[in-house]
Task: inverse folding
């Protein structure tokens, strides 16, 4: 029973780290991509992306704790981060 409790606690701690750190990193990449790709002036795009960051971060945190496993939570954060990071990087190379 003690090992089950320890594994459960590790899973919850992993999800908490995924929600806090991974959610922050994913949100930062998402607002960077939105600020670059939204079809409006740079100031309006930055403001819109910043306002959307609250919604994005909240959804990421909810999703991390709603998914079946901590592994799936981490993969669900890392995969979009790779895609968004690649898009931002390619855009920076093009400009």
Result:
């Amino acid at each position: 029973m003690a090992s089950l409790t320890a594994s459960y606690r590790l899973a919850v701690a992993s999800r908490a780290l995924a929600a806090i750190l991974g959610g922050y990193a994913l949100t930062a990449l998402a607002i960077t991509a939105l600020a670059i790709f939204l079809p409006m002036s740079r100031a309006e795009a930055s403001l819109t992306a910043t306002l959307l960051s609250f919604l994005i971060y909240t959804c990421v945190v909810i999703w991390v704790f709603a998914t079946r496993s901590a592994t799936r939570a981490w993969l669900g954060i890392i995969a979009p981060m790779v895609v968004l990071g690649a898009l931002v990087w390619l855009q920076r190379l093009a400009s």
